[in-house]
Every structure is written in C-alpha cells, then in structure tokens.
Amino acid sequence: MNDYKIINDPVFGFIKIPRGLLYGIVEHPLFQRLNRINQLGLASVVYPGARHTRFQHSLGAFHLMSEAILSLQQKGIFIFDAEAEAVEAAILMHDIGHGPFSHVLENTLIHGIDHEEISLMMMEQINRDLGGGQLNLAISIFKGDYPKNFLHQLISSQLDMDRLDYLRRDSFYTGVTEGNIGSARIIKMLNVVDDKLVVDHKGIYSLENYLTTRRLMYWQVYLHRTCVAYEKVLVNMLNRAKELVRSGHPLFAPPSLMYFLENEVDKAWFDNHEEALANYELLDDSDIWSAMKVWKLSDDKILSTLATDMLDRHIFKVEVSEEMPPEEHITQIVQRIATQMSISETEAQTYMMSLNTIRKDMYNVDDDSIAILYKNGDIRDISEASELLNVQLLSKKITKYYLCYQRFK
C-alpha cells in the first residue's frame, strides 16, 4: 500500500497512483495548477454542478490509461514497463497547457498556438525539474514520434482515454445522464493489429452508444446556446481590456494577466520571450474573476457593462439559426445597442455582440476511423460494420450560426 497514493474519485472510485515518477508529476506545481482551471469553462451557467477541474479529468484519464494498458497486456500485446509508465505520464500531462476557462480563451489571450503545444513546453520543463531525462519517452509518445503508434493513439485518437474520461465525467457533473458511456467495456474490447488500435466486434454496441453520446454532449452541453453566449461576454470583455491597456488607459489586473493584456502573444512570442511561459503558468480562472470584480467599477462603460454581465449572470441574448442572419437584422441590433449605451456603432458591434459560425462533426471517416476486428481477423470501419448506427449522418458537418448580443432589462 505504501507504493501507491490512493485518491477517491467520484466517477471511477479509488485511483491508485504509483509513487515515484507518476506521483512526482501529480505533486508538481504545474499539475497542481490544474486544480484552479475548470474543465468545462463557463458551463456551470447552465449546469451548476459542472465545476470539476482539469486536475480531476487528468487523474481520470490516467486511471483509464492504466486500465487500457492492463487489458492490452492480458491479450498478449507486449508493452514494456517503461512504456506503460511513459504513456501513463503522457496522459497525466496531456492537458497541462490549458489556460483559464479551458478552451474559451485560446484565441483571446494568446494566438497561433494551442494548448497542446504549450503542454509540450510544460512537459519539457517538468522533465528538467524532475532531474532531466525521465520523461523523454513520455514526450516522444505524446508527440507521436515513438515507433509503437498505438500508444500515441491511446492519448490522441477517436478512442483515446481523454475522450473516454471527459464524456463520463462531464455527464456525471452536469447531470446529463444520457451522456454516460460504457468506458470500461470499450477498454476491455480494445486490441492492437499492425500497430493500430482496433475494437473487438463484441464491443460495437458500446461504440454506437459512444458516438451517439458524443453528438448529444456537444450540442446539449459543450455548444449549449447559453454557454456559448456567456463565453462571448467573457471574450469581448478581455478584448476590451486589451484595447484599453494598449491605448494607455490605467487598468487593474494581476501581473500575469496584465502581461497578456499588454502584449500580442503568439507562438513566435513564446519562442523569443522566456517570461511568456512563466506568466502563462501563473494564470488561472481566479485571475480573470479577480480582475472583473474591479473592472465592474471601471469608468469605461463598455468594460464595466461586460464585467457586470459576467458577475451578475446577465448573459448575452442568443439567436441560433442554420442560416446566416440577415444583415439588416444585425444592423438594427447594433444601432439599438449603440443608442441605448451611448457608444459608437463600431464599439457596439465589436464588443457588445458576436456572430460566430460553429461547424462540428462527430466522426470523420477519412481523418481517424474506428476499426472493428472480427473473429476471422477481418477489419472493417465502424461505418461499414454497424447495422444500427447511421455513421454517415454522424460524420455530416453541422453548421449553426450563433448571434449573441447585449440584452437590456
């Protein structure tokens, strides 16, 4: 028992983390930072229970990875102990580069670099902090450079442990019970053929449920109209804060947040400024909430209104349609907001409204198919193997237009 640290997880029960390298990652400040970043950003505006963290999700993904490795080994797939530890380390750190509110601010505070690239930077830093070299194999698997490609697929693919955890976990915390999936059965049905992950035919019904569930969770939770509208308030508020700071307007912000308000930070900036990553590592949800409590009292009417909207749950009104809203309709909204707030129409359109096109498919046959293994050794894509599931419908890219704008009492 002394060889493990045991954590009680509400979704999977007791999770055992071996002491040594893996527990060293969990104890690292960069991993502990994930306790201060919500997994679902602002989804709690619709689902009050959705306040679980990236920390919890990362532990859950690690647990599923441990189960997947054990299941594959029991089927005769040869995985060295060092490889098992490395892929478990990689999945622990796969989300370590997320910023405040998870995905919401990826193109607001930073541009041209995603959280996976920042995760890799942080992995390399943890590697140095733990003595150098211990995470080389984990980083190689994470990047997809390691010869055993199926190990990388366990981290990033249609059936990776990341997705299997977040669907179960997000369903649990939102209370959307239709989103529950049979992750344990899917893992038991995993196999490897020619260095690629496949699923035994007996698991096809669990996969059908999995793909249907993903579709439901995206439109009912992740892209819920109210969640999207609330996120737009946050994004516009930060864009206004950036505009004010860069025009010389005095504004309060924690130092780490101020760094990103003052500078246009992209990949090249990260590459040429060491302090960029250091400031990013200090950022979490609390920095944004602390700033907006002060911004609510700002003498700038736009920033004050947006900060008040955020704090008082005064969410943008949202209209969802399958066709682009008419230009005349948008113009009328802009004029009404400008008149009501005594601001310019340009300011009204830039900060007090948002028009976004969201395209999403649940399954891409060409990009990353799910292979079904039959007893006779034949392998077919699930789009051909499933008798009940309309995979063509699931792979159809759905487009919706979200018009969000300031509402008035």
Characterize the structure shown.
By secondary structure, this protein is of the alpha+beta class. Helix content is 51%, strand content 12%. The protein has 20 helices and nine strands. It has a four-stranded mixed beta sheet. Helix 1 (21-27) runs parallel beside helix 4 and helix 5 packs antiparallel against helix 6. The longest helix has 22 residues, at 225-246. The mean pLDDT is 93.
Strand order of the largest sheet: 3-4-7-8
Biggest β-sheet description: 4 strands, mixed
Low-pLDDT regions:
none
Number of helices: 20
Order of helices and strands: EEHHHHHHHHHEEHHHHHHHEHHEEEHHE
Categorize the overall geometry: globular
Give the helix/strand class.
alpha+beta
Distance between the termini: 59 Å
Count of distinct strands: 9
Query: What percent of residues are in strands?
Result: 5-15%
Radius of gyration from the CA trace? 23 Å
What would a concise description of this structure say?
This protein has 409 residues and is α+β, with helices and mostly antiparallel strands.
Give a topology summary.
Layout: E1 4-9, E2 13-18, H1 21-27, H2 29-32, H3 54-74, H4 81-92, H5 115-129, H6 136-143, H7 149-155, H8 161-174, H9 183-188, E3 190-193, E4 196-200, H10 204-222, H11 225-246, H12 255-262, H13 267-272, H14 274-282, H15 285-295, H16 301-311, E5 317-321, H17 327-341, H18 345-351, E6 353-360, E7 371-373, E8 379-381, H19 382-385, H20 391-394, E9 398-405
Parallel strand pairs: 4-7
Antiparallel strand pairs: 1-2, 3-4, 5-9, 6-9, 7-8
